[in-house]
Write a structure and sequence with these properties.
Length: about 280
């Protein structure tokens, strides 16, 4: 584990949802229909934001959930409570997805606890705004790539021996991959890598019956931006430039992750869905 770049402490990332006001909306909007009945899902960054909303929706649809998160223990326990309230099992595992050894240990624990892994959601990510490329430190550059894209490689490598035909991998990319983000150069670059990774991994695994897709959210109200991932002045108008005119909520994104994980999307692989408030990105 000594090769892992230390987490950056220049801000409060990833941030506690319990301290965020107004609270993001994670609640599923409709009754479950058993679309993930009997499945086991690993969700990284599941303690808050989009990850929590996906965990809640997957649990409502019948899946047991492994909640991987960095260090927000109170948020992770709340997500576990939500999953259990839906009548499903929850397992919380704290650690850094940028650490290959952690990913291997976490996946092994999930497999031994639940005896199977059907869905891997690579959602964990970090971002640090910089107005000038020369302000991006080497540590920040390496750290952002380590979390956002290396972590996905490590998680897939660890989970691959457990994934059988019918399994699904869903990666979280971003609208910044398509539209660019002048103050998020390193972050948007990782999101471009994630999209390419998704398409290439799909080609690599589809022959074994494993589908790989991605979701590219627009501006979504989660702890990522308010706790250091965006400049304070931008938060005042966060999401207002979308055609819908407001930021999205996590429970408006989670259904895209559900669709790509269940049999409703059985003829889709290598694709990206765009819950982004109406922005046309042609990707």
């Amino acid at each position: 584990m000594s090769d892992t770049i230390p987490m950056i402490h220049e801000d409060a990332l990833p941030g506690h949802e319990s301290a965020l006001e107004p609270k993001p909306q994670w609640e599923p909007r409709y009754p479950g229909s058993g679309r993930l009945s009997g499945k086991v899902a690993i969700i990284t960054g599941a303690d808050s934001g989009i990850g929590r909303a996906v965990a809640a929706l997957y649990a409502r649809e019948g899946a047991d959930i492994a909640i991987l998160y960095l260090n927000e223990h109170d948020d992770a326990e709340e997500t576990a409570r939500i999953v259990r309230h839906e009548g499903r099992r929850a397992l919380t595992i704290a650690g850094d997805v940028g650490d290959k050894a952690f990913c291997e240990e976490a996946v092994a624990r999930v497999a031994s606890t639940f005896d199977r892994i059907d869905i891997l959601v690579n959602n964990a990510g970090e971002q640090h705004p910089d107005k000038d490329i020369v302000d991006i430190t080497e540590q920040q550059l390496r750290r952002t790539f380590q979390t956002n894209i290396f972590g996905m490689f490590f998680m897939v490598q660890a989970a691959r021996p457990h994934l059988q035909a019918g399994a699904a991998i869903v990666n979280c990319t971003s609208v910044t991959m398509y539209n660019g983000a002048k103050d998020l150069l390193d972050y948007s670059a990782t999101k471009g890598a994630i999209t390419a990774f998704t398409r290439s991994l799909s080609e690599n695994l589809i022959g074994d019956g494993i589908r790989v897709n991605a979701v590219a959210p627009g501006p979504i109200w989660t702890p990522l931006n308010p706790f250091g991932g965006a400049d304070p002045e931008k938060l005042e108008t966060f999401g207002e430039k979308t055609p819908i005119g407001r930021p999205g909520q996590p429970n408006e994104v989670a259904p895209s992750f559900l669709f790509l994980a269940c049999e409703d999307s059985s003829y889709m692989s290598g694709q990206v869905l765009h819950p982004n408030g109406g922005m046309i990105v042609n990707g």
